[in-house]
Here is the input.
Amino acid sequence: MITNPPPANSWARSSYSGPEGGNCVECAHGATQETMYVRDSKKSEGPVLAVSAASWAHFISFAATH
Here is the structure.
């Protein structure tokens, strides 16, 4: 479990999510920029997934082409 998540104002969400949020994730860089945090946009107080920035970039690249 993440004990020190990024501040609330550092989370970003896709412009495709629209004003209601819908079924989206939010992401934020960690303090060192080497970690990306991902959470459910509907449950911002819920669990947070931490992945390396390199893994996140690979995932985004894959998702954009499939």
Observations:
- The chain has a mean pLDDT of 84.
- Residues 8-65 form one domain.
